[in-house]
Amino acid sequence: MNIALLTPPYDIMKKGYGSKRKVRGGLFPPLGLAYLASPLLKDGYNVKIIDASSYQYTNDQIYKILSDFKPDIIGISSVTSSADESYSLANHLKDKIKDVPIIYGGPHTSCFPEMVFDNIKQLDLLVYGEGEVTFKKIVDFYQKEKKIPQDIPGTWAKINGKWIKNIPAQPVFKLDELLMPAYELFDYNGVYKPLPLQYKKLPTANIITSRGCPYGKCTFCYESGRASQIYRRHNPERVIEEIKFLVNKMGVKEIAFWDDNFLISEDWILKFCDLLDKEGLNMPWSVVARVDTINKKLLERAKKSGLWNVFFGIETGNQDLLDRIKKGITLDQVRQAVQWCNELDIDTRGSFMLALPGETPQKAINTINFACDIGVTYAQFLPTHPDWGTALYDDAVGSGRVVPLYQGRTSITYIPDGYENADEIRRMQKKAYRRFYFRLEYILKHLKRLNDIGKIKQYFDALKYIIGIST
C-alpha cells in the first residue's frame, strides 16, 4: 500500500515570521510525519512525505505528485497557523480523488476538531493526540478491511453523518520504544535551512528529545491547558544514535534541538555531553531553554561539546506582566542567564511578546529597552496571539478586544485596553525591530563577525529579513 503524508502549502516566512522579503529560512523537515512513517516503513508500506510548506508547492502541484504516486491513504498534518491552507488542500484533493481516504491530524486537531469538521465536509477520519500508534492501526485496518475504522482510540469517526469522539489513545510513556523518525525520507541538502544567523553549518537537522513541558504553567501555551502532555524524555544514548544516523547516513553537520526546554536535568545533559565527546561527534548544536533551569557550570560543559546558541522565551521586560502570564521567571534571572552566555561566547536569541494583556505602549518601550540592555545576540518581537482555550485567551477577553480573523502568527488578533488600535501595535513592533537591530553599537559589534563569505551571506539575508518585518 502507498501512504502519502502531507504538510499544507504554508508561507512560513510571511505568515509565520511576518517578513515581506523573500528570504528562504526557518525551514525544517516535519518530524511528526517522519515519526508516523517509521513503523509503516518497517512493515513494508511505501511511504512518501510531501512537505508542501517547505517546498512551496501549490494544491495543484501536490495533486500532480499524488497522481504519479497513487496513494491508498492520504494523511494531512497541520498546526493552527496553517489550518486554512490545510482545509483548502483537503477539499481540493477530495474534489480530485474522491475514492482515497483523507486522515487529518497534527496539533490543530487536538485543540480545534470542530473547526476541522466545519471546514472539511468530506473528511474521512480525524486523529488527535500522539499519532504514531493510532495512525499505524488505521493503516493496518484499512489494508485488511478496505474501509476506514470507526472505533480506534485517538480518533474522531463519522458515524451516520455525525462525528463521534473515541476514547483517547494511551501516550507512549517510554519514548525510547518509538522508532527513530524516518530521516531518510528527507533531502537534507535541499531547501531545509534555519533562519539566517541561526546556524553555523549546513545541512542542519532538527531533533526532539522529549515531549511535553516540565514547567507547563505559562498562560499563553497549550502545554499548560487542554493540550498538556506528561513530560517524557529519550535516554541520552538514544539521542546519540539519532545524531550518528544523521551524521553518517544523511551528511548532517549541525543539530537544532526543538525541545520546549532542552537544558533541564543536569545529570542528563552531562551524560549527553560525555557521550557526544566519546563518539567524536564534534559538531555545533543549538537549543531552546528557560532562564531558570540553567547555571554557568552547565552552560560551560555544554559549550565544550558544541552548544553555541540558546533560544530564550523572555516574553516581556515588565515583571508584572511576567507574573500575569505565569512565566515563573524574574527579570534578574533573564539578565543573569544572558550574561552567562555572553561570558561563554554562546549566542542568545530572545523572544518577546508585544501587546500582552495589561500592556501599554510605555510597557512595550520597557520591553524594547530591556531587550537592548541585556545583551541578547538576536531578538524577535511578535504581537500576542491569544490562542482559544488558553488562560491567556480568557484574560484577553476581559482586558481588550480579540479579533477573530486569524491570518498568521504575526497578524494582530488582540488589542489590549492600553492600545488604541491594531495599527498602534504594528507600529510598536516595527519600532522594536528598528530600535534593536539598527543601534550603532549593535551594528559595530556584528561587523566584527564578518570574517568569511558564508557569514557575510547570512548577514545579508538577515538584513533583508529584518527589513521585511520593520518596514
Give a quick summary of the entry.
This protein has about 475 residues and is α/β, with parallel strands linked by helices. It has helices at about 10-15, 30-40, 50-55, 60-70, 85-95, 105-110, 115-120, 130-145, 235-250, 265-280, 295-305, 320-325, 330-345, 360-375, 390-395, 420-435, 440-445, 455-470; strands spanning about 1-5, 45-50, 75, 100-105, 125, 155-160, 160-165, 205, 210, 230-235, 255, 285-290, 305-315, 345-355, 380-385, 400, 415. The N and C termini lie far apart (about 50 Å).
Secondary-structure blueprint of this entry?
Elements lengths: L1 E6 L4 H5 L14 H12 L3 E6 H4 L3 H11 L3 E5 L5 H14 L5 E4 L1 H5 L1 H7 L5 E3 L4 H14 L9 E5 L2 E4 L38 E4 L2 E2 L20 E2 L2 H15 L3 E4 L8 H13 L6 E5 L6 H9 L2 E9 L3 H6 L6 H13 L3 E8 L6 H14 L3 E6 L7 H7 L2 E3 L11 E3 L5 H16 L2 H8 L5 H18 L1
Parallel strand pairs: 1-2, 1-3, 3-4, 4-5, 8-11, 11-12, 12-13, 13-14, 14-15
Antiparallel strand pairs: 5-6, 6-7, 9-10, 16-17
Helix pairs in contact: 2-8, 9-10, 10-11, 14-16
- Text of the CATH class of the largest domain: Alpha Beta
The largest sheet, given as strand count, sense and whether it forms a barrel, is: 7 strands, mixed
How many structural domains are formed by the residues? Answer: 2
What portion of the residues fall into strands of 2 or more residues? 15-25%
Number of continuous helical runs: 18
Unreliable runs: none
Based on secondary structure, the structural category is alpha/beta
Termini Cα gap? 50 Å
So what's the overall shape? globular
Give the overall average pLDDT. Answer: 93
- The CATH architecture of the largest domain can be named as Alpha-Beta Horseshoe
Percentage of residues assigned to helices:
40-55%
The counted number of beta strands is 17
**CATH fold descriptor of the largest domain:** pyruvate-formate lyase- activating enzyme
CATH superfamily of the largest domain: tm_1862 like domain
User: Which sequence of strands runs across the widest sheet?
Assistant: 2-1-3-4-5-6-7
Radius of gyration: 22 Å
